[in-house]
Each structure stands twice: as C-alpha cells, then as structure tokens.
Amino acid sequence: MPLVFLKLGGSLITDKSRPYTPRPEQLDDVAAQIAAARRERPDLRLVLGHGSGSFGHAAAQQYHFQRGAETTADWHGFAEVWYHAATLNHLVIEALHRAGLPVIALPPIASVSTHEEKIFIWDLYYLRAALEAGLIPVIYGDVVFDQALGGVILSTEALFAYLARALHPERILLAGQEDGVWENFPQRTRLIQEITPQTFAICREHAGSAAEPDVTGGMKTKVEHMLALVQEVPGLQVVIFSGQTPGNVQRALLGATPGSVIHA
User: Fold this and answer.
1) Least confident interval from 141-155, 167-181, 211-225
2) What's the rounded mean pLDDT across residues 158-185?
3) What are the residues whose beta carbons fall under 8 Å from the beta carbon of 112, sequence distance 6 or more?
4) Domain containing residue 66
5) CATH code (residue 247)
C-alpha cells in the first residue's frame, strides 16, 4: 500500500502576519480534500504533519526562544512555544475530525529527543501501530528536549526527514501558500517545475524565502533539506505546491504533481 507524507504549511493554515490567528475555512477545505482523496483511494496510507505558523513562530519570537534553554526565562519561552503549537494542533485535529478522518495526534515532545538539534531517539511504535490500524497519525513542528542544548524547536520537515529514512514513503507533499519554488522571488513569474541535484546549483540563488519570518528556515533551506533527502531515500519524490489552489491537495494525494517536484 502506498505511503504518503503530507505537510500543511503554517502559511497555509494560519495568517502568519497576525500572531495566533488560524485560517479555519482553509483548514476545513483542506480537511475535506484529504477525506475525498481517501474515499477515492482507500488503500492510501497517510502521515500528516503541519507547521506552527503564526502560533509557534510568533511565540518563539515573542519569548526569544529558538535554540537552547538554560535560564528560567528560556524554559518559560520553551513552555510558551509548546502551548501555542499544541493549541494549533488541536484546531487542526478538530478540522480533520469534522471531515470524518480517523486522526491521532502524536506530539513530538512526548516521544522525540535530540542531540544538538539532531533526532537520535524517536519511538516509532505508536506511529507504526496507527498506520497498521488504518489511522492517520498527525505530527507537527514542536519543541523537544535536547541532551546538549536543553530544549530546541524541531520543524515538521526535520520530523518528516527522519520518518522518511525509516518508513520509505513514495512521496512527501509540502502544501503552502506558494505555487512552488520560484526562480524569481518575490516577482513570482517563473516557477521552477523540476529540481534535481544537477539543476539545483543553478537555481539555488533564486529559491526565495517566506514572506513572513519563520524560525525553522525559509524556502531555500527547505529545498536544500529535501534535495538531500531524495538522494538518501530511493524513489522518493517531494512536491512543493500551493494548498490554496482549489483541489490541489486532493490532486496531489491522488498522484498529480502541482508546483515544483524534487527528485534524485
């Protein structure tokens, strides 16, 4: 049975220009598309992830927390980022549940440990069990405890990268606001439809970035990480596309490749 990872970007499900502001209609629309794709392709195994958007990122900036926790103030910031990321996760789970999807939230802070921001412990039993039962595990960008730094923020892409090496999905779908990776950001007139190790050297200076601050890195960082991953996981394809375009999420889940495709 095919396995697909789908990330709902923070820019898609929240208003990143306004702290702690969800986009409930967008959430409901995406949830409905996922449900429709599952009805059309009932054998599809799916791991969902989502960014923290204007919840976790805003809290990280407000409380000056990103990398490392030592002082009481640092740990207070750590807890605030956790709270706001968990709040958004609850809203996402509610939307998916309303659409009739059998989702199970698996908060990274409860099962993932890092060392200098690299995952070295993740008990995947529960995630594997959820997939085996036909459920949809949902993970998200979160704070986690780090053996060297105390506490750090771990992005959904970092979680997906670790999972991809363990579970070998066919595709990773990254749904955001942008139509894909632009050759000329912010003008947005030339979309890069295909990115490989050979072509990335040419387009790397034009990969662009997010319109709003993102403490886990912008578009160029995302492309670099995904390009490294497709070279490690045989046959993996990554698609960066707009989840705002009507029907795009459903089409991507059913095998279409809107936006920019990254492969080895």
Assistant:
1) 211-225
2) 94
3) 119, 121, 122, 142, 144, 154, 159
4) 3-262
5) 3.40.1160.10
